[in-house]
Amino acid sequence: SAPGRFADYFVICGLDTETGLEPDELSGENFEQTPLRRTFKSKVLARYPENVEWNPFDQDAVGMLCMPKGLAFKTQADSREPQFHSFIITREDGSRTFGFSLTFFEEVTSKQICSAMQTLYHMHNAEYDILQTPPTNDKDSCSSTWDCNGTAVSKLQRFNSYDISRDTLYVSKCICLITPMSFMKACKKVLEQLHQAVTSPQPPPLPLESYIYNILYEVPLPPAGRSLKFSGVYGPIICQRPSTSELPLFDFPVQEVFELLGVENVVQLFTCALLEFQILLYSQ
């Protein structure tokens, strides 16, 4: 049985520089997109601990749910604000484990990866130039690439948005906590403070490993009906677990539901729930 730790795993997902740029099959073929807009396969780079017996690590599920859209590349001209999201892994026996991920962008230091991205742009632009060359056959004939007005039908567009000698290349990376309970706000603060420590010019008060060790091995789950306060990198973090006589733990901001769906849709959704309708939410 689980020993009642606050978190079971700390996970890092991102670009594997040894395997390089691999197309992400799950997102489908998107070769008509410019290389910076394509998605590439992300991998679990590290996890701590290696495995716990009460919650076996599912590398495929965690890797996919941490970065569901795969790797993303940007340059210094693009917005690179960190993004936070959560997910749930439900096992065959109905038990659940919760994941909380913070995705951010870091500079690509591998010359091989930068060269590979430059090569993809050369190939993309060369194909674009071929498609932009007018057909040499009879003007009255039409091809699959051109319409009868001599206009290119292809969706390919030429963009010189990455130059290895001019631009700085950034790639997405993710840090994640896998927990037995959905303490969303506390996990978000932990990850944000860890990210702040990594990007800050000043080193944190203690080595980052000590904070990760603390959250994995020394911070317990709060007992039912009690609060828990523990130290983060830059300040205290507090979470509260409802008692058995209260509503179950729900640590997510209801405000976001109204912002995403609107008041009328939320009322309609709530009505359908009360009437026990089957509800399907579809999203990108």
Describe the structure.
It is a single chain. By secondary structure, this protein is α+β, with helices and mostly antiparallel strands. The protein has a domain at 9-111 and 164-221: Beta-Lactamase. It is 27% helix and 20% strand. It has 6 helices and 8 strands. It has helices at residues 59-66, 111-132, 184-199, 208-218, 254-261, 263-274; strands at residues 9-14, 43-48, 73-75, 83-90, 96-107, 169-179, 227-231, 236-240. The strands form 2 sheets. Strands 1, 2, 3, 4, 5 and 6 form a 6-stranded antiparallel β-sheet that branches. The protein has a two-stranded antiparallel sheet with strand order 7-8. Strand 4 (83-90) and strand 5 form a beta hairpin. Helix 5 (254-261) packs across helix 6. It is globular and about 75 Å long. Mean pLDDT is 84; it is low at 141-160. Keywords: Guanine-nucleotide releasing factor. Residues 24-284 form the UDENN domain. GO terms for molecular function: guanyl-nucleotide exchange factor activity; small GTPase binding. This is DEN5A protein. One of its GO terms (biological process) is retrograde transport, endosome to Golgi.
